[in-house]
Amino acid sequence: MLTAIAAHFVLAAFLPLIARRWGRAAFVVGALAPAATLVFALSRASGALAERHPVETFAWAPNIGLEFTTRFDELALLMIVLVSGIGALVLCYYACYAKPGDRAVSRDSSLLVLFAGSMLGLVLADDVISLYIFWELTTVCSFLLVGGEGLTRKLRKSATQALLVTSLGGLAMLLGLLLLATAAGTTRISEIIANPPGGGVVTAAVLLILLGAFTKSAQVPFHPWLPGAMVAPTPVSAYLHAAAMVKAGVYLVARFAPGFSDLPAWWLPIVVLGLWTMVLGGFRALRQHDLKTLLAYGTISQLGFLMVLVGAGTWIAALADVTLVLAHGLFKSALFLTVGIIDKRTGTRDIRELSGLGARWPALTVFATLAVLSMAGFPPLLGFVGKEAAIEGLLHGEPKDLLLLAGVVLGSVFTVAYSLRFLVGAFGARPTVAPTEAPPSGTVMTTIVGIPAVAGLVLAFVPGLVEPLLAGYADAYSANPPDYHLGLWHGFKLPLLLSIAIIIAGYLLHRTALAPRLAGWVPGPLHAQRGYQASVDGLVALAQSVTGRLQAGSLPIYLGVILVTMVAVPGAGLLSGIETPVDLRAWDSLLQVPLAALVLVAAGTVVLARRRLTAVLLTGVVGYGIGALFIVDGGADLALAQFLVESLTLVVFVFVIRRFPPRFVDGRPYFPRARWVKAGLAAVAGTFVAVLAVLFSGSRQGMPEASRFYAENAESATGATNVVNAIIVDFRAFDTIGEIAVLAIAATGAASLILARARQRPSGGYVPEDAGSERTEVKQ
Amino acid sequence: MTVNITMAVVLAGLYTVGFYLLMQRSLMRVILGIVILGHGANLFLQVAGGPPGEPVFAGSALIEAMVDPLPQALALTAIVITFALTTFLLALAYRSWALLGHDEVQDDVEDRRIREAERRREGMDESDEPDTEPAEAVAGFEAPEASEEVPR
């Protein structure tokens, strides 16, 4: 399985080259990877169904315990069927869909295969870190595929929204996964679920993980990114935004649900938001005229349904959930691909402009009808089988499940209504509109649509083909599974009656067109898109106001902010854990007192000096005073270096200031009081440093080990009696090389700055208009 | 083995003067501030290494009586690097003088622009903005296109 994932990535890297050579055929080449994966996975299906699931591990950072582990179980196999099966179909379809010579071919083919590989890794990953990595890889692929070349504002806006919303959830999920892994003491998902930890941290972790799942699966209130993402090419929408990527959220919840289904913090948000999403998505789908947007809202609704089922947490509900995951992947991809054909052949996908396509394209109409009926839950299709199981599961659960059932029934009525709206809108004849002119729908593309559509029909008659797989997943919820089997006929019982009632109600809703009139009515504050806009605008405004205030462009303000932070943050920490040193002494040697006075007086006078030379000389006095203090401290070499360097500094200063006017140019004071503010801030910060010095040195106990080693071994190891010299030129010689490099760079820089005066390029750099006259003055 | 109070006061004084000079507008004063801060840092390193003692020459005294050699080695490096930095800064000040005719630290133009944009935005918020977004914006891409304006 590791090989399969790697093969996707390698192939994705080569596809641009293939596309340059053979154009659209690159998609067919790209389809090889998911197709081979599907065949391989199906040939190993017995392993996934076995008691012990095959595990593969690749340790990529063993030192810190990071490894990539795949675990091939029932849920993974089911998702591989969708991800790789639909992936291969969509790639083949895209080969016909793309225009010959389109520049997007190399980019999209590569990204789609990359996405297929990421999705494969996501559903196989058994450790939380790799799960997160693949999760974000799919987000990035989605961003790039939605945005395309980013040529229009619409593309950029939709792609950015998809990226922002899903990566927000992704980051929350990462935090949640890490909390969970820490609480459980392992990063392996299978072990976490086998022994779920408990406590407040786990509640927080679970909520964060759910945030990730909800954003990815477009649950209320994060759903608007999904209809927005419909600007992507239709095959991309069919794959990412119907069959695979948006299922990742449902997959994540399904993956963790067996461990946490009893936790209220887990199931409550899932069923509440899931129901809301299911009803809202169906409701809004009824108002769309654009076929693709209609399907997108339908997807939102169905994802809500899937969430509710997995949140219900019973064996039959789980069985229904995975059945519907499969059914939804099949019918929704078929429908999207149908819309792709309509869009490509007729140039529109607005149901107000389409008419009479049903008579023109009988084969496509049959396939689309199969898919639509599966979506609406008509017998004898897989969608019906799943919905029967769902109703059965919710009927015989706890009391809360009956509430859920009521919501699900309402959502299903909407589903039937928008399914009919889609079918009639796309293929029906309208008396008021002339029949749409269209070329034949194309054999290859129609066949590709037919494969998932017919699969939904066949599987409904032989559910035994997939039932071991689906029931194998549901077994995680209950040790004693009830005696229930998927099937078309369970006798004349309540679920069947409810199904019939749903279909009749949905048909009436469609006929009366009541909902389309109501569906525009949403209270302003509940507009999810406005919420998104407001949060993005708020973030931008916050960033701008923080930047505008803190980054005022004035150096004194920057330094002030830095100093305040320096005092406030470590200062507060220091106050909380302060330890008063005991051995406070006034001085160590009497000589220190007059030298200290000299240094302080000189430093204080620098501030007051009006003439540049005075200030420079006083700084020199400070330096020599420090040198004298070094002698008192017993640092002979240090004092020597200090005296030498101080003299050199003075010389350099004098060389430079002889070009400057003798007095400081005290320009207009910006704020008269600013001087005192600056002085006060500087005094606080300076005192803080001194306090730090006292406190930190208080924790020092005699000469440290390293210093003692240098002092003891200097003579024997280096032959030098001066230990400081031995350290600099021998023990720590590499540091000294670095120091010399700094000197060399500074010297080069200084020299080039000074010598550059001679040659002034006319167009180079920023030269203000009045600079010319000044420059000639300097030269004189 | 804390720093004694005299040295702590010197440190406080040097750092205060250094910080104060750094916050000045004159580039020359800023450089002097860096030099004085450098002095303060070197002294910090030295006095944090313990009270005065015998110079560290092997065999000249007992190791227990010697001062710690490591802070001295560090301070020595720091002194030299401060010198290099000072020289480079002086060259910059000189260049600034030669090109611009003054040695004053100017406000950053880009940053000032951001600040002014922020002021303008705050002024705008006070005036009532009409809520023009139609209900169809929920669909994500049916929203009216805003003009493609490059912020200036």
Report on this structure.
The complex is a heterodimer of chains A (780) and B (152). With 780 residues, chain A is mostly helical. Chain A has four domains: 1-126; 262-520, no CATH class; 555-723, Up-down Bundle (Four Helix Bundle (Hemerythrin (Met), subunit A)), CATH 1.20.120; 732-780. Chain A is built from 33 helices and two strands. Chain A has a two-stranded antiparallel ribbon with strand order 1-2. In chain A, a hairpin with a 4-residue loop joins strand 1 (55-61) and strand 2. In chain A, helix 1 (2-22) runs antiparallel to helix 5 (104-124) and helix 15 packs antiparallel against helix 18. Chain A is elongated, with a radius of gyration of 36 Å. Chain B is mostly helical and 152 residues long. Chain B contains four helices and no strands. Chain B has a domain at 5-100: Helix Hairpins (Orthogonal Bundle), CATH 1.10.287. The interface between A and B is large, with 147 and 113 residues.
Brief account:
The complex is a heterodimer of chains A (780) and B (152). Chain A has 780 residues and is mainly alpha-helical. Chain A folds into four domains: 1-126; 262-520, no CATH class; 555-723, Four Helix Bundle (Hemerythrin (Met), subunit A), CATH 1.20.120; 732-780.
Q: What labels describe this entry?
A:
heterodimer, A: 780 residues, mainly alpha, Four Helix Bundle (Hemerythrin (Met), subunit A), 4 domains, two-stranded antiparallel sheet, 33 helices, elongated, disordered C terminus, B: 152 residues, Helix Hairpins, 59% helix
**Remind me, CATH topology of one domain in chain B?**
Helix Hairpins
First-residue to last-residue Cα separation of chain A: 78 Å
Tell me the total number of β-strands of chain B.
0
Low-pLDDT regions of chain A: 761-780
CA-based gyration radius of chain A: 36 Å
Keywords (chain A): Cell membrane, Membrane, Transmembrane, Transmembrane helix, Transport
Organism (chain A): Prauserella endophytica
Subcellular location (chain A): Cell membrane; Membrane
Protein name (chain A): DUF4040 domain-containing protein
